[in-house]
Specification:
This protein is 11% helix and 35% strand. It has 332 residues and is mainly beta.
Amino acid sequence: MKRTREESVLLVNTDDKFDDDSHQNRRLKPEPTPNTISSQPAQDLTLTLTEKPQPLPPGKDEILSSLRLRRIVRENHGSCINQCVFFPSTNTLASEQDAGTASNVLATIGGPQANFYDNEHCGDHLDIMSHFVVNGVGYCKDAEELPTETPELLTCCWLHVDQDAVLAAAGTDTDIHILSVTRSEEIARLKGHTDRILDLQPHPTDVNLLLSVSDDGNVKLWHVRAKKCLCVYFVKATAAAFHPNGMSFLTSSSKGVVVDWEIPEDLLHLSQNEAVAAPVEHIDEGQQVLWSDQLHGNNYIDCIRYVDEKVLSKSVNGKVVFWDPISAEVGI
């Protein structure tokens, strides 16, 4: 079809109105006129988009429907499993010491036993790697006499040791058993408590330090390699939690009370020889941050943890509280 001169002039005059965003999808932009209503501003469009209803998070039924039962394991001690802990591969100390390769290891304690499982290399299975029995094979190398009653392990935690996965476990026999997975034996035993041990916590920045909470009215700070208690805190506690900076820790009680305790700076990052030579320190006063009439009432707090600068605590009545240790206010 032959174009008129007017049509050609129109095409030439509007050629530089093409949209340069896409060479293949160019289109003409009409010239605005005084009577033309302008389009809605971009910010209004953004507000319109954000006002669209957001998808709801998955419900409990949807989450549970995606779970799959892999295996049921029955441990032969016939007692309650008191604790179950994975090796903490996300810990910065683990990554620094290349200990993250043990992230597949799972430990359980119950009765007089500590069992270690492989949760990664066995397909759908949860196979046992190692097995310890208090006062059984691999134990009591320096024990004076066997106990008359079967001991029960109540608490445990992982310790970071080069080229090894080491578990500290304790309970009714009042000793702390240091167990090596790679060597399949007890490599140390820490003695000093006179009643059952309720909680063990590893120090977040010093791999040699371990905190133990006992029914004997003492909380002890240990240097594991030196096999020595560095500091005794006189407090009847039920559980403990280190602050992430490692300079202090919290203890909870059977009456719902939480106390903050400082760690002397001269006890941090000691070598084995320095720890052996260091005198034992004693501290009998901490700063109370939670009273019995707050949050948990007069109930026994059996678990407490730091979450960044906030605290998560649980009492035996089933109440879990997330709170600020400075103001004791609940919530974020």
